[in-house]
Design a protein that fits this description.
The complex is a heterodimer of chains A (74) and B (266). Chain A has 74 residues and is mostly helical. The radius of gyration of chain B is 23 Å and the shape is globular. In chain B, 69% of the residues lie in helices and 2% in strands. The chains are: A mainly alpha (74), B mainly alpha (266). Chains A and B meet through helix 2 of A and helix 3, helix 7 and helix 9 of B.
Chain lengths: 74, 266
Amino acid sequence: MEGNIELLKGAIALVGYGLAAVGPGIGIGIVVGNAITAMARQPEMAGTIRTTMFLGIAFTEALALIGFVLFFIA
Amino acid sequence: MILASECDTAGEVICAPSDVKELFELPVHTLLGVEVNRTILLTLLAAVIVSLLFYFGLRKKRLVPSKFEVMIETLVEFVRDGIARDVIGPEGTRYVPYLLSMFAFLLVANLFEVTPFVNFPITSRMAIPFFLAIVTYVIFVFVGFSKNGFRYFLDTIWPKHVPLGLRWLVGLIELVSVFALRPFTLAVRLFANMVAGHLMLTLLLGSGVIFVAAIGDIGARAALGIPWFALGVGIFLFEIVVSVLQAYIFTLLSAVYIQSSVHFEH
């Protein structure tokens, strides 16, 4: 029994990382999609929008990255 | 790669890595009586490269700068105008030396990942991004307290613009996210990106080489190595973009955190 749980641990961590990637995936999609819409409407603001977009991506991405790190720790 | 090249390609199971920890532990050498490993040597090398770039790039002020000097000046201008003044505002000029040296160091450190024969991003060791994140943390907390006094802390945990019923909850979330999570997420973002890229490159390029090299033992199955190697080359190009982008994002977020302390009105 003990051994089986040890074997499963890596697989469970993998599933956990998959779950952690769902939310940020959707979030980054929304951020980039809206940024593209904004750039298409106001091309002269593209520089500012791109900076803000990277910021938004970076904040959203953090959750997925924490999941990725926990996968190695687990 | 060293680990993988010890694989027994004649067996039924071609390769089973023993433990992922081997990817994270490097052999220790002794140099001039000091124990060093690859990370320490490359960190010193990155520092030397950045110092030399700036020394030779900005040594002379000429009316018509050479191509190399224009490159360095563009880098300085990008950090000063694109990051510091754009995000922080006119006061941002004070923070340009810190942001610029951090950006240049991270750029060199990240690009070690895609430098042939080095192939090792030193930012994929937690110590380096975490140290830089701690420095940013100290700076923005210090600036927050010195510009706003103790109000910086009070307004963070008791935000006046939030309805009273929710104020304690928002305050608690702000307290944790500003004073505890910021340096952690800042460091983990860079670290995890570089580890992920490094692992992918190692696995794809390494398995490609091993499969093709084992053509005598496994026959036609060795052709599997070719698409993997091709995918590895694609990821390699992608990682160049990621390296630059992550250095930019780290610097940009540092500037945003400093900005949130400098202009603390909301």
